[in-house]
Amino acid sequence: MVFKKMLSAFGVGGPSIDTVLTNPNTRPGLSLDGHVHLLGGDAPASIEQITLGLVTRVEIEGGDSEYAGIMEFHRMAVSGPLELAPKQQLAIPFQLLVPWETPVTDVYGQRLHGMTMGLRTELAVARAVDKSDLDHVAVHPLPIHERILDAFQALGFRFKHADLERGHIRGVQQTLPFYQEIEFFAAPQYARTINEVELTFVTSQRGIDVILECDKRGGFLTAGHDVFGRYTVSHADADRTDWVRVVDGWLRETTSRYGSLRAHGFGAPHGRGHGMGGVVAGTALGVAGGLVAGDLIGDAFEGDFGDFGGDFE
Question: Is the pTM of this model over 0.85?
Answer without folding.
Answer: no
